[in-house]
Amino acid sequence: MAFDKTPGWLDWYASPSTPQFRLPPGAVDAHCHVFGPGDEFPFAPERKYTPCDASKQQLFALRDHLGFARNVIVQATCHGADNRAMVDACLASQGRARGVATVRRDITDDELQRLHAAGVRGVRFNFVKRLVDFTPKDELMEIAGRIATLGWHVVIYFEAQDLPELWDFFTALPTTVVVDHMGRPDVTKPVDGAQFELFVRLMREHPNIWSKVSCPERLSVSGPRALDGERAAYRDVVPFARRIVETFPDRVLWGTDWPHPNLKDHMPDDGLLVDFIPHIAPTAALQRQLLVDNPMRLYWPEEA
Ligand SMILES: O=C(O)c1cc(C(=O)O)oc(=O)c1
């Protein structure tokens, strides 16, 4: 099926630079997506955007170029609960990719088992209104209870202003919970202000809650952008991500977020995004936890 991209869609960066930061051996890109290709894996009718294609081969080429060993492929909302593109990528990865799925309440135990066999280790619950329609919390809690028995975790995506209302639901989840993109703080507010303190408190009081310290390109307001060899990109995000890495070093993950859905301002050079890592994880020990030990414990516990 042929799809027309959402007007203004920015395609992923075609020739990323080679990072100057050398990733530790075994590093995991713990948040990335595949889109289609649309003629093989059609986008979902209920999607809120139509992206460019971003195939598994292109993802694996980026992995190798940047120096990652493995990927965690997170179901993108443009595919709804049709996990075929993500599952196909996991199966083709020769054990080097694990997945996070989107499932509905009517999924059978057999289907969950098939996802597990393909490498899926989590489900994603999305609360960002521009991306998904509302799913009742009792339905999500029922799904969480079922996937808990498989040893999976829940990935949650929400915006900082919605945390107070979602707090009780998040803290009642029976699994490890991984927050996408630090719960999307407003980085024009102080790093020790009320909004970000609430997020830090969520993690401090709930040792089962982890965070991805990803997406500076999405969160940054003042830049500068990771383009044209910029060595000091997204300065305004650094204090937020660094605080989370240094406070909770054994509960943080990092990912490229390739192919960067819905960016409006610019498309970053993924090589320069990797060069952002030592600014938020300044020591070799922190880098190893962030990029190797933590994702291995969550996604490949049998090897960790
Ligand atoms: O902020 C976004 O637009 C976004 C979208 C998706 C998705 O559509 O799945 O995933 C992300 O991690 C971020």
From TrEMBL:
**SUPFAM superfamilies noted in UniProt:** Metallo-dependent hydrolases
Q: Which InterPro entries does UniProt cross-reference here? A: Amidohydro-rel (IPR006680), Aro_Compnd_Degr_Hydrolases (IPR052358), GLI/LigI (IPR047874), Metal_Hydrolase (IPR032466)
What CDD domains does the database record attribute to this sequence? PDC_hydrolase
Q: Which domain of life is it from?
A: Bacteria
Pfam families associated with the record? Amidohydro_2
Residues forming the Amidohydrolase-related domain are: 28-299
Q: What is this protein called?
A: Amidohydrolase family protein
